[in-house]
Amino acid sequence: MLDVFNVNALGALRVTEAFVPLVMNSASKMIANISSEAGSIGQNKRSSWFAYCMSKAALNMGSSLVHNGLKEAGGHVLLIHPGWVQTFMRGELDVAAELTPTESAGKIIGLIRERIGQSPGDVPAFIDVYGNSMPW
Ligand SMILES: NC(=O)c1ccc[n+]([C@@H]2O[C@H](COP(=O)([O-])OP(=O)(O)OC[C@H]3O[C@@H](n4cnc5c(N)ncnc54)[C@H](OP(=O)(O)O)[C@@H]3O)[C@@H](O)[C@H]2O)c1
After folding, report:
1. H or E element: which one contains 127?
2. Can you tell me the mean pLDDT for 7-23?
3. Which of 65, 69, 119, 134 has its CA 20 to 30 A from that of 96?
4. Is the C-beta atom of 58 inside 6 A of ligand 1?
5. For the domain that residue 31 is a member of, what is the CATH number?
6. Which of 69, 87, 125, 129 is nearest to 104 (CA)?
7. Is residue 136 part of a domain?
8. Catalytic residue annotation
9. Ligand 1 near 91 CB (within 6 A)
10. Continuous segment of H or E residues that includes residue 17
């Protein structure tokens, strides 16, 4: 569990810390983190997957803290659930998943581009790959 937390929650925070001076000097001032529906407490139906779900909920909170620290200077954080994607994340290729990595990545890039130039919201946007708001 600590390994998963270290990668999913702390890894994103380490990358943020390293890049935030460059991001805040950029036109977009945006950080986009790949979260998951599994990190949503509000819509949780699972009773297992403790490491993954807890690590993504921690990523969401870390992103909220970073967003609050940057928003007055025009910086913002976007949290995206990439959909159910055909990858090896669960150990073997998830052929039943609804999106290919190319499809998911294309939609994610579109969502990021749409938001460039927008003012930061009071809270970070937590959206799915179709642009729908996700419950925290
Ligand atoms: N697939 C889904 O249905 C789904 C759903 C919701 C959210 N997500 C999220 O989408 C993101 C991408 O997942 P994916 O499905 O594309 O999984 P994936 O194919 O298993 O890719 C995971 C990526 O993370 C990298 N990685 C793993 N451990 C790392 C470490 N210790 N340090 C640095 N990089 C590390 C891997 O690098 P290497 O290639 O070098 O091993 C790989 O590029 C993840 O954040 C996942 O939680 C996926």
Report:
1. strand 125-128
2. 98
3. 134
4. no
5. 3.40.50.720
6. 129
7. no
8. 52, 56
9. no
10. helix 12-24
Structural domain contains residue 20: yes
Decide: 88 in ligand 1 pocket, CB within 6 A: yes
Q: Is any atom of ligand 1 closer than 6 Å to the C-beta of 39?
A: no
Q: Which of the listed residues 2, 34, 89, 98 should we mutate to test ligand 1's pocket, taking the one with most ligand atoms within 8 A of CB?
A: 89
Residue 117: pLDDT over 90 = no
Q: What's the mean pLDDT in 13-34?
A: 97
Would you state the structure tokens that stand for residue 26, as one six-digit string?
Answer: 């950029």
Tally the domains of the chain.
1
Within a domain: residue 133? no
Position in ligand 1 atom list of the atom nearest CA 34:
45
Domain contains 135: no
- CA 18 – CA 129 distance, rounded (Å): 26
pTM > 0.90: yes or no: yes
State which residues form the domain around 19.
2-128
